[in-house]
Design brief:
Distance between the termini: 45 Å
Helix content: 25-40%
Largest sheet: 7 strands, mixed
Number of strands: 32
Length: 590
């Protein structure tokens, strides 16, 4: 209720920074609700302001939301530094990282650790901390008039009594130092800022250039693909890592706006296999490609690894729910006459889930399938000749991917990049075979073609049936809550808590940041409320959401709330989340 009252009102200036300090000292020792006296904006002598947008209900609740506004007359960022969407995202990402470093360096992110219930609590200032990827965010936003930064503060208390002196120290003494160092152009390392923006703009340009050159991916010479560890996305130490070098036959060159001419391995449209022994870097290469749909920060090691931005990682996903997907291109003749042209199940098998994942990806507009055999269903990928002799094709419901991958490319222009370590049958359909040996890439297409055997791939791929989500089946209400109330939250990067349902996204490998997951949860509600009527196909729903983001930004997810921890998801991860909501129903649109 407090938040609802504050929406749209916290831009109002209530007084000066001295007034804010006086208010906080006045309410020192008062009950926690007295913090409501700080709602609104407070101006500092230099001309910038801090705004308290939402007060937490008590010291144990989620922290209070705030934002600062620095007019461009004070921050003075050169307009040419943020005159495109890509450059603006890069500048805002850089400023977010600077603020996070300053907050951490000053110990402002450390909460008080009191003795028991009555001891001091809170006091920590937190900001959305980016990953290696450079994404559109709401942590820092910028236009020609101002720079805005958003953060949370756990307003300090002892028990439920306000620690006003501590709050004043955070908001009127510590915060100004961070603002002056992070949001004023002259105070920054301007060369590092320019390098950050130039690196991102080069990646964006390179991704566009490879499309014009009929490539689906590019891996630059000198790239560091291995990561520091299995749970880290930071690069392996360059002294230990083997830097990537393109096979001569696949080397391409491109000229970028800032870096100049770069060279590396170009992967053309078609069917590409990545082969080699275990632990030689096959999956490492594929993992770099699957995140090559995003731009990364300087020093990541993958600044010259780019992939067609429609690429989707496909895997088997036992147990996922499926609603009204036409999986007949791959699966037919199920026992007991169960139809597959309008297939639904609450508990898909490995093969049916992988078939559904592919058809859903095509429905959303993906043009590149990324598949690792380690996470694929074996019976979906291939059937060898001896098994076909034992189990006649007429008795086998599954048409394996190997029998459809060529038609998928010829008829729909959809390429496939696959890690294949144990099935040479795929040589029969491959256009390109890359061998990884000790993390070094070699073009072995000629050798593989000598081992290939004729494979009958005649016949059409099959149709892609569009589906319209039914909005009445999307409901984030929780049992026992008051009517009309809905609750969406996240648990890390891979779970959206949507009312009483958990949307499991652990098989969606191209989610880069939990702030994307948070945006996805709220985007589902936005899509239901403004983009669906039960007859609009999913692809068009996603088009409308993307248009909304392009025109109104991520604030369209929660207008007037000043949410600072959204990052923009791709349409594909948003669609994947909708498809994995167990309550959702679709209607086929033919």
């Amino acid at each position: 209720d407090t938040e609802r009252e504050a929406v749209g009102q916290t831009a109002k200036i209530m007084g000066t920074s001295q007034d804010l300090c006086s208010t906080l000292r006045r309410i020192d020792g008062a009950g926690y609700k007295a913090y409501h006296d700080t709602l609104g904006g407070w101006t500092f002598p230099e001309g910038w302001s801090v705004h308290v947008d939402k007060i937490q209900s008590d010291p144990f609740a989620p922290p209070s939301r705030c934002h600062v506004i620095v007019p461009q007359s004070l921050s003075r960022f050169p307009p040419e530094l943020f005159d495109t969407r890509v450059k603006k995202a890069a500048v805002c990402d850089f400023l977010t990282r600077v603020m996070c470093r300053l907050v951490k360096r000053g110990g402002l992110d450390q909460a008080a650790a009191g003795a028991g219930w009555s001891g001091p609590k809170g006091g920590d200032l937190q900001m959305d901390n980016p990953t290696q990827q450079v994404l559109e965010r709401t942590s820092v936003m910028m236009d020609k008039n101002q720079v805005e930064a958003r953060f949370t503060v756990a307003l300090p208390a002892a028990g439920r009594s306000i620690l006003g002196q501590k709050a004043a120290q955070i908001l009127t003494e510590a915060l100004p130092g961070v603002v002056k160092q992070a949001l004023v152009y002259a105070a920054l390392d301007t060369q590092a800022l320019k390098r950050h923006v130039d690196t991102v703009e080069d990646q964006h340009t390179l991704r566009e250039l490879i499309k014009k050159d009929n490539l689906v991916a590019f891996v630059g010479d000198g790239s560091i693909l291995p990561r520091a560890s299995g749970n880290s996305d930071e690069p392996m130490d360059s002294k230990q890592a083997i830097k990537f070098a393109s096979p001569p036959s696949l080397r391409r060159e491109f000229t970028l706006p800032h870096r100049g001419t770069v060279s590396g391995m170009g992967i053309p449209k078609g069917i590409t296999l990545i082969v080699g022994g275990g632990f030689h870097g096959k999956s490492t290469l594929l993992q770099a490609l699957q995140l090559g749909v995003y731009n990364v920060i300087p020093g990541d090691g993958r600044e010259l690894v780019v992939t067609d931005d429609s690429a989707m990682t496909i895997r088997a996903e036992d147990g996922r729910s499926v609603s009204s997907v036409d999986i007949s291109p791959f699966i037919n003749n199920l026992p007991f006459g169960k139809q597959t042209n309008d297939f639904s199940t609450p508990d898909a098998s490995g093969s049916t889930s992988q078939a559904a994942n592919i058809l859903e990806a095509l429905e959303m507009g993906s043009k590149v399938m990324l598949i690792d055999e380690d996470t694929a269903a074996t019976n979906f990928m291939v059937r060898d000749k001896r098994m076909m002799q034992l189990v006649a094709p007429s008795k086998e419901p599954i048409t394996p991917y190997i029998s459809k991958v060529r038609q998928l490319y010829i008829e729909m222009g959809v390429s496939s990049i696959m890690v294949i370590g144990g099935c040479g049958d795929y040589f029969d359909v491959a256009d390109l075979v890359i061998m990884q040996e000790n993390y070094a890439a070699t073009d072995v297409t000629a050798q593989a073609s000598q081992l290939a055997q004729p494979l009958d791939t005649s016949g059409p791929f099959g149709g892609i049936t569009q589906r319209a989500p039914v909005p009445d089946t999307i409901n984030a209400a929780r049992e026992g809550d008051r009517p009309g109330m809905e609750k969406v939250s996240i648990n890390g990067k891979h779970i959206v808590r949507f009312g009483d349902e958990d949307i499991a996204l652990d098989s969606i490998h191209q989610l880069a940041d939990k702030s994307q997951t948070r945006a996805i949860g709220d985007a589902i509600l936005l899509a239901r409320n403004s983009c669906m009527d039960g007859s609009i196909p999913l692809g068009q729903v996603l088009d409308r959401i993307e248009k909304r983001f392009n025109e109104q930004g991520l604030d369209s997810l929660n207008a007037g709330r000043y949410i600072g921890n959204y990052a923009r998801p791709r349409r594909f991860e948003l669609g994947a989340a909708l498809n994995r909501l167990r309550t959702i129903k679709y209607r086929q649109v033919r």
